[in-house]
Amino acid sequence: MDTMHYQSQTLVDVAYKALKKDITERVLLPGKKIIIRELQERYGISETPIKQALNRLITEGLVESIPRKGIKVTEITWEDLEELFDIRLMLETYYLKQVMKNFKNNPDIHKEFLKLLREHTWVIEKGVDVNDYFQNYYLDQEFHQLFVKCSGNRRISRIYNNLGTHDYAYYIYRRQSHEETIAGVREHEDIYNALVTQDEAELRKRIETHIVNARNKVSLNLKKGYLKDIL
Fold first, then answer.
1. What secondary structure letter does DSSP report for 4?
2. Residue 136, number of CB atoms within 10 A of its CB
């Protein structure tokens, strides 16, 4: 463990990022019990920061604590995935008129969307490692959270932000092709363009297409990973 990073990060932050990296790279497998002593040896960090980092991951849903069985990486199921994308589709298409109106009347929102799109394009074109992979899905999530925020309904926005809409990203690392990733960002651009033209039918179509494509790609890549793990 590089001690230089400790100067700008707490030990809890270091443990948190290390755990996320190990989940993503399948060092820690879904369903497998997490042994804190082994993590202490692996990360060179004491028990308390690791436990605090695990608590953060439990809150996010990536890790779960089961009474009398310990802590393990959460297993994501096809049913979980279907329900998650159904909820996303429902929330992102329900407030289209309000989203379009608030987008039209607020130039700052235009700038936020454009900033996200530019940064996302840069990441997928220049990204080389797991940190860039994380950033890709963070920006993807930020785009959709901004879209729902445009509805003006703060309660719905909070609900949406707590859904864990992109937790699946930690299970498909190196399974989705670069072309698939680029296609997802291009679909974000289509959504933005429909907002600019204020075409409700086109906006609905672009949102529905994007979410259905995402569901199909993620499901396929998760299944590929499952088959790889059992063969």
1. G
2. 20
The rounded distance, in Å, linking the Cα atoms of 43 and 167 is 23
d(C-alpha 128, C-alpha 135), whole Å: 11
Beta bridge partners, 63, equal: 73
CA dihedral sign of residues 154, 155, 156, 161:
positive
Statement: the pTM of the whole predicted model exceeds 0.70: yes
Phi-psi region at 35: left, alpha or beta (left = phi > 0; alpha = psi -120 to 50): beta
**pLDDT value of position 76:** 77
The 10s digit of each residue's pLDDT in 27-52 is 998 888 999 999 999 999 999 999 99
Q: What is the mean pLDDT of the chain?
A: 87
- pLDDT tens digits along 52-73: 999 999 987 789 999 888 999 9
Q: Which band of pLDDT confidence, cut at 50, 70 and 90, is reported for residue 105?
A: very high
Q: At what angle do helices 107-126 and 130-149 cross, to 10 degrees?
A: 160
Place of tokens 């949406």: 160
Q: Strand 70-73 vs strand 63-66: parallel, antiparallel, or unpaired?
A: antiparallel
Q: Which two tokens stand for residue 63?
A: 């890790």
Of all helices (H) and strands (E), which one includes residue 72? strand 70-73
Q: Give CA–CA dist 9/12, Å, rounded.
A: 8
Kindly state the greatest CA–CA separation across the chain: 56
User: Tokens 């396929």 sit at which residue?
Assistant: 220
Reading the block at residue 143, the tokens are 């785009």
Cα 72 from Cα 69, distance rounded (Å): 9
| Band of pLDDT at residue 225, cut at 50, 70 and 90 | low
Of 166, 186, 165, 170, the closest CA to residue 130 belongs to: 170
Tokens of 203: 């906006």
